[in-house]
Amino acid sequence: MSQADLSIHAQVSRSGATDVMTAPAFSVPAKKLCMWLFIIADSATFAGCLVAYGFIRNGTTDWPRPFHSITNVALMTFILLTSSLTMLFAVRSGEKGDKAGAFRWMMITALAGALFAFLHIREWLGLIGEGMTMFHNPWGTPLFGSTFFSITGLHLLHVTGGVIALIAVGIRYKGGRYSADDLEITGLYWHFVDLVWMFVVPLMYLLNLSH
After folding, report:
1. Beta bridge partners of 209
2. Is there a domain that residue 18 lies in?
3. Residue 75's domain is classified under what CATH number?
4. 14 domain residue, yes or no
5. What is the domain count for the chain?
6. Between these two residues, 171 and 20, which has the higher pLDDT value?
7. What pLDDT is stored for residue 23 in this prediction?
8. Phi/psi at 109 (nearest 5 deg)?
9. What is the dihedral of CA 109, 115, 54, 139, to 10 degrees?
10. What is the pLDDT confidence band of residue 197, given thresholds at 50, 70 and 90?
C-alpha cells in the first residue's frame, strides 16, 4: 500500500471514529419523539379529567350507580387488551420484514378496535334508552351523565382515531410507503389508548356498580 493510500485510510478511520464519538447517545427519531410528546400531553388531559371526576363524585351525595353487571365492560376490556397483543404481533412482524403478516395483524387490531367502539356505542344507546343524557338521568345528579359521556366519549374518540390510523398506516405499509418504524409509532399510540382504559374502567364502571 502506497503512502498516499495509507494517508487516505487514516483520514477515513479518523473521520469514522469522530462520527462515532459525536453521535448522540440517546437519539430518538423525530416521528417517535412527536408521538411521545403527544402521549405525554394527552396523558395530562386524561389525568385532569379523571381527577376532576373524582372530586365531583366525592362531593356529590346522590351519585347514581346505574350499572348492574360488569359483563359488557369486561368484554370490552378483554377486546381492547387483546388488540394490544395483536398490535405487538404486527410490530414484530414488521421488524422481521414480514409485510403480509404485519398487515394482517394491523387489520385484526383495527377490527378489534371497531368492535370495542360498537359495544361502547351500544352501551351508550342502552343508557340513553333508560333516560340518561348529558344533563339528566332518572337515578340522581345529572352530573353523572355529563362526566360519563365526556370521559368515555373522549376515550372513544381516541379509539376511533386509532382505528382509522391503523387502517391507513397498514395500507401504506403494505404499499411500501411506510416502514416498520411507522408501525411501532402507531403501536405506541394504540398501547396508550389501552392504558387509559385501565383507569377509566375502575373509576367510571366498577365504582358505580349497584349494590
Report:
1. 67
2. no
3. 1.20.120.80
4. no
5. 1
6. 171
7. 46
8. -60, -45
9. 180
10. very high
| Predicted pLDDT at 211 | 67
Look up the pTM and report it.
0.85
CA 124 to CA 118: how far, in whole Å?
10
Give the model confidence (pLDDT) of 64-78 as tens digits.
999 988 999 999 999
Domain containing 174 equals 29-208
Does some domain include residue 37?
A: yes
Question: SS in 3 state form for the chain?
Answer: CCHHHHHHHHHHHHHHHHHHHHCCCCCCCHHHHHHHHHHHHHHHHHHHHHHHHHHHHHCCCCCCCCECCCHHHHHHHHHHHHHHHHHHHHHHHHHCCCHHHHHHHHHHHHHHHHHHHHHHHHHHHHHHHCCCCCCCCCCCCCHHHHHHHHHHHHHHHHHHHHHHHHHHHHHHHHCCCCCHHHHHHHHHHHHHHHHHHHHHHHHHHHHHECC
